[in-house]
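Project standup — Tuesday

K.O.: blocked on the structure for the chain from last sprint. Re-posting the sequence here as requested.
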Amino acid sequence: MVKNSPDFPCVLILGALSDVALALAEVYASEGSRLVLAARRPERLERIAKDLNLRFGVTVEIKELDVRDFASHGAFVESLSEIPDLVVAAFGYLGDQQKALDDFEEARQILEVNFVGAVSVLNRLALRMASQRQGVVAALASVAGLRGRMSNFHYGSAKAGLIAYLSGLRNWGWHHGVHVCTLIPGFIRTRMIAHMHTPGFLTLTPEQAAKRIAKAIRKRRNQAYIGPIWWWMMAVIRAIPEPLFKRLRL
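H.V.: unblocked you, prediction finished:
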């Protein structure tokens, strides 16, 4: 039986060792997409690449990418054997809020991974896509970027910057044949929040999140909450007047 042509023949996933990225890789492999998986420790992807190739019969290429090594990003993009049809930026670093207050190096890492590194690598990839006037750029932001909270305002501010950046890139991309999708998840049961106690009804598994992310990308959504309840929750949180909001222990 011949498979239907995938929506995205070549998919590049940045931060491919994250739990959501691995679930996304399986979604796109099951659709027959060629995969390029990029991560800071590419050797950890070798077993995953072999498994995806064996189960789905797709080509899986592994690349090294350190999102904080900005000087290497040009060479990384140049090393790609083809311009991807879809790029998904799935990397992130929650960090330690209190440590970031005490130690600027922790704050710097949060900002560089979640915002500066994303801008550096996505700028280059968007330009390559624009040269062929085709392609989709998608990136995982966070509900934390929609209003600063005392519990994670370093991480939240980086994600807020990413949301604004993606909005502008989407405006630019529309004129250059490139679509940009801002993905806004809430809680996902990943290693990054394993230390947190999150409400079950608000928390998705990586597999559930991956399916919703893939659907939003396929529909060429401009901005998509990964879990519709978050739109309502964040509408309420954003509507709280600042004099009251600053008194809350959020």
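K.O.: great, moving the ticket to review. The first helix runs from residue 19 to 30. The longest strand covers residues 179-185.
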